[in-house]
Structure formats: structure tokens, C-alpha cells
Design a protein that fits this description.
By secondary structure, the protein is an alpha/beta fold. The protein folds into three domains: about 110 residues, 3-Layer(aba) Sandwich (Rossmann fold); about 70 residues, Udp-n-acetylmuramoylalanyl-d-glutamate--2,6- Diaminopimelate Ligase, Chain: A, domain 1, CATH 3.40.1390; about 120 residues, Nucleotidyltransferase, domain 5. The protein has twelve helices and 18 strands. The longest helix has 15 residues.
Amino acid sequence: MKIGILAITAGGKRLAAELAERMGASLLPLEEGVALTLARHWQKLDGFVCIMATGIVVRGIAPLLQGKEHDPCVVVVDELGRHAISLLSGHLGGGNELACRVAALCGGEPVITTASDILGLVPVDLWAKEQNLVCESKQALTRASAQLVNTGSLSVYSEIQIASLPRGLVAVAGAEQADIVVTSRLGEYGAAVVFRPKNLVVGVGCNRGVPVAELHQAAQELFREQGLSPLSIRNLASIDLKNDEIGLLAFAQELGVRIEFFNKDELNRVADVAVSEAALHHVGAVGVAEPAALLSAQSNDLLVGKRKWHNVTMAVARANCTLSEQDRVLQNI
């Protein structure tokens, strides 16, 4: 986590220097003033520790705010280090944890105001982030978060295995009973907040010079026909001979996912896949889309067998993943 520390007074600067050394953080000089310094570094750092009055910080960050998914965290500290206030992005941005860390180094008290932490509950958005789940609706997530705080529990249905859940989340057998639904399947889930697990690997074979638009069209058709959410795509996979294929690389970049490549010998060791005479002739592999997807997913679950378009073949494998408790409730509040 890249942290910048700002201070105004002489006492604050002494504390800032001590914290910077112990935390491996950067001291940010204030020749341009607080507001301009924050603006200059806002997109470059993960968090700020501001040793000054809260009002100064509020006025400085107000024009910079975009949303909790994008904003860095901000912690405000008095110059004696008695209080470390988690002011912004306490959950997703790590502000609450940073406040606790700073308070511990100063011998002071963290000031945390997020209700879930005060009540000893793991915030839904933080839990989802740690499980690598993608939320479809911010509005539904807000409602679920409020329900957790107000009632102390949420019911969870998941198509992937649940090893354990944090306090306040309770597994149920059906989606119709659930406040939270974890699934890669498209469908109607009522008022539930729907999270997409990153558990689908798309194997791709393609002709040389394939347009990126054709890859997008093929994926959209495949996922729509199979009732799958593209938000669940974890990564792409293909043969190593395509590691310089411009359209394929652009496709992965535009999806925001990585692409994994395998050589023909690795692909040929995968059993029970559809044999492609064209692939055998051109690249010496029994196939590309199916074996590449299975190898990358490290599973035998071929969810969608090979589909062919003019310049593209695709298959989808499902990787094994598990929901497990990662209890981030702050113990020293």
C-alpha cells in the first residue's frame, strides 16, 4: 500500500517523519498547499495520513471524490497522535485498517465510525472483494449492507462451495431464499444482491489476423446462449503460437483479464476433449479451445464445449473456487 503523509505544524512534521520511517511511507511537502498537494497525488497513492485538523482535509478532498470503488483512503491524525480518524474509504480502500495501524504506532486510539465494524460484522463489500466477487448492482449492495447492520444477518446462496462464512452471513439452500446470490448464471434473483465469482476460463482458438470485434461477438453470443455472465470470466487461454496475435491480445486487454498460453505438448496431454483435424494439421495439437480452458482452470469441468465461428473457436471451463471466511473485523476498535 503506497501511503503519503502530510503535516502542517512543527509537531505534526515531527510525527510525520517518524511515521514515514516506520511505515515506509512518503512525506509530501506542502509548498503548494494541502488541496493542491492532495490533488497532485490523489491518483498515485493508495492512502493519505493527514496530520492536521479534519476540516482542512475535508475541504481539500471534497473536489476529488469519485466513489468508494476509486478513492484512496484518508486518515486524519492530531499532532500528538492521540486519535487516528478513518475519514474516507474505510472498507474497500483500507482506511479503517490504516487508522488502526497509525494509532498503534502513535500509542493512540483509532476512530472508526462504520457501523459494521463497530458491531463486529464483516462489511459485505469488503468480504466480496476478498472473495474476488464482482457485484452487479451498487444499489442492491447498499440495501444488503444496511440490512446486515440493522438485522445482524444476511442469507447467502452460492453455486460454488462454501467452506465458511463470516459472522452475520448464513448459507441457505436456494436462491429464492437468499439476500446474497453468488452465481455465474444469468437469471432473475429478485431483490438479492448478485455477486459474480471469477471462476470461468475461456479457451480461444483463432485464425491469424482475427479482428478483435469478431472475438467480442463470439464471446457475447456464447455467454448469452449459455446463460452465463461475462463478469465471471477469470482469464483467457490459448496455444503459445498465438502469443503475438494482436486481436487476441487486444481482446484480453479490453476484457480486463490475463491470457495464459500452453504449448502443443501440454494441450495434447488433456484427455476427453473434442479432436480438431484443423488444429492437428495447422498447429499439431488435438485442439486448442477445450484443452487450453481445462488446463488453465486446473479442473475437469468443461462447462461449454467448443463452439466454432468463422475465425474463432471458444470453450468454457469452470475453475474450482471456494468461499471462505476471512475475518477482517477490527479487533482493537
